[in-house]
Amino acid sequence: MKTTVARRVVWIALLVSLLVVIGFLLRPVSYFNALIYLKEDFSGISSRYVRVDGYRVHYLVEGPATGPVIVLVHGLGSRAEDWLNLAPYLVKAGFRVYIPDLPGYGRSERPRNFSYSVHDEAAVVVGFMNALGLRQVDLGGWSMGGWIVELVAARHPELVQRLILFDSAGLNIRPDWNTGLFTPANAAQLDALDALLMPQPQPIPGYVARDLLRRFHQEAWIINRAMASMLTAQDVTDALLPDLKMPVLLEWGAVDKVTPVAQAQTIHQLIPQSRLDVYAGCGHLAPLQCSAQMGPSVVKFLQQ
Questions:
Q1: pLDDT of 209-230, one tens digit each?
Q2: Which domain holds residue 193?
Q3: Separation CA 95–CA 252 (nearest Å)
Q4: Rounded to an integer, what distance in angstroms lies between the CA atom of residue 196 and that of residue 255?
Q5: Of 48, 61, 161, 180, which sits most exposed with the smallest number of CB within 10 A?
């Protein structure tokens, strides 16, 4: 009798293990996300939601409750978790770090009636800060997120104490790369996107690539709507940047192909009080992949 029960337990365990393996091979990205969320919980990072202009916006928050506040805004096709390599430097320095998922990204709502334009996302960032009672914050943005925070700083300077732009977009410069790569439809385009975003990308296993492409297909309408709006140049910031009065830090990857260093130098010239740091060997994903070099510089700027 005991032998029969033991055999059943073994068979059930084997069956469950098989189902887990099959599930992982079919949906590996979901498993990777679950591990990231679990790590956040064990690291003391709070995952929360707030209503902003009627939309359910997800955000992460960590660091001492009484620390000076910094808000970090991600870019196109990105999410809050992409800041998690840089955030520990800020937390260790005593900052309270808020990282929202913009509408359409991460764990935030994906409303069909939203434009996903830079100016409407900027309005959500302002609404997010107002909803949480955040005033006179340090504000950082990466890529499209940099463009968003440029608008916030220009239109609501009373909310921003210091501004940090990471490989930021926003200038009236049409991309010389294939914007369609942000919604890859096959493995070759996915590889081309990786090569655009980072130097020396690692090969993506086939089963992971398939799941990534499935997700890109599901969310392509959001990326396409946002990209189409940006390409109209209706929200470009060339004329706004010279009027910024707060201290500004520009953090850039030296081999960024999406927003090349030449754009950083233009922004630097447009903002006389800005400081520009360029990191050798780093691409457009510098805040994620070069955080060890970037983190101390950002903290030093914020503590001045």
A1: 999 999 999 999 999 999 999 9
A2: 43-303
A3: 22
A4: 10
A5: 48
